[in-house]
């Protein structure tokens, strides 16, 4: 019998870790196992297994079969995760009502940090010209006076601008030439990889920054 498998960022992780910057036009829905199970059951499918993965800040890989002919036993992982989602409050409206306030707190802390850097004469660059970073930058109303440029290793992006903010996108060589005081890692899910890749920047005293789930300055 056939098996259908789907992988998607987990709604619980999005809410728990303030991952509002993953909400943009490419993503049309934000799913939990609770929601997926309900959708599948309404369409003749049953979830029989689920796996949790660290991808994109926390994802689910769901396995489903036809409800009428499927023969695979339901794994205990399904019931466990449904219970955890219920305990977190994914079925309660109150769990979602505070999300806007928490997102705005991230924005306020991030913009305040950038303004303080500007007043102190500190130069700030960013790394990763990707969608989640663009969402954060535009939510915060950031412009080139606060973030001088965004570094990206993709040569197709160099010489262009971040949509909306008009912050220049440059190649990695600019970072080593300019030697900024701070580098904001916009793809926070790649923080470990990026800090290792740019470890040499610490030689001139550069520090790394992430804004989500909360502002963190890494020495």
Overview of the molecule:
The mean pLDDT is 95. The chain has helices at residues 11-16, 33-42, 76-88, 93-97, 99-119, 131-139, 172-178, 191-197; strands at residues 4-9, 45-53, 59-66, 124-127, 150-151, 169-170, 182-185, 207-210, 216-218. The longest helix is centred in the middle third of the chain and has 21 residues, at 99-119. A hairpin with a 5-residue loop joins strand 8 (207-210) and strand 9 (216-218). It is an alpha/beta fold. Helices cover 36% and strands 19% of the residues. The protein is elongated, with a radius of gyration of 21 Å.
Please provide a brief summary of the model.
Helices cover 36% and strands 19% of the residues. It has helices spanning 11-16, 33-42, 76-88, 93-97, 99-119, 131-139, 172-178, 191-197, and strands at 4-9, 45-53, 59-66, 124-127, 150-151, 169-170, 182-185, 207-210, 216-218.
What does the secondary structure layout of this molecule look like, with pairings?
Layout: E1 4-9, H1 11-16, H2 33-42, E2 45-53, E3 59-66, H3 76-88, H4 93-97, H5 99-119, E4 124-127, H6 131-139, E5 150-151, E6 169-170, H7 172-178, E7 182-185, H8 191-197, E8 207-210, E9 216-218
Parallel strand pairs: 4-5, 4-7, 5-6, 7-8
Antiparallel strand pairs: 1-3, 2-3, 8-9
């Amino acid at each position: 019998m056939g098996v259908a498998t789907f992988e998607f960022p987990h709604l619980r992780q999005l809410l728990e870790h303030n991952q509002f910057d993953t909400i943009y036009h490419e993503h049309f829905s934000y799913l939990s196992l609770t929601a997926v199970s309900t959708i599948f059951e309404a369409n003749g499918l049953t979830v029989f297994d689920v796996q949790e993965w660290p991808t994109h800040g926390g994802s689910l890989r769901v396995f489903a079969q036809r409800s009428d002919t499927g023969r695979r036993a339901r794994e205990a992982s399904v019931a466990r995760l449904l219970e955890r989602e219920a305990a977190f409050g994914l079925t309660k409206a109150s769990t979602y009502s505070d999300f806007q306030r928490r997102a705005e707190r991230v924005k306020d802390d991030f913009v305040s940090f950038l303004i303080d850097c500007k007043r102190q004469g500190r130069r700030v660059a960013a790394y990763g010209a990707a969608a989640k970073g663009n969402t954060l930058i535009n939510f915060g109303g950031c412009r080139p006076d606060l973030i001088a440029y965004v570094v990206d290793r993709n040569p197709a992006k160099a010489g262009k601008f971040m949509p909306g903010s008009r912050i220049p996108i440059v190649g990695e060589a600019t970072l080593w030439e300019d030697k900024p005081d701070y580098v904001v890692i916009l793809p926070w899910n790649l923080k470990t990889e990026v800090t290792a890749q740019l470890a040499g920047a610490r030689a001139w005293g550069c520090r790394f920054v992430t804004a989500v789930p909360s502002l963190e300055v890494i020495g």
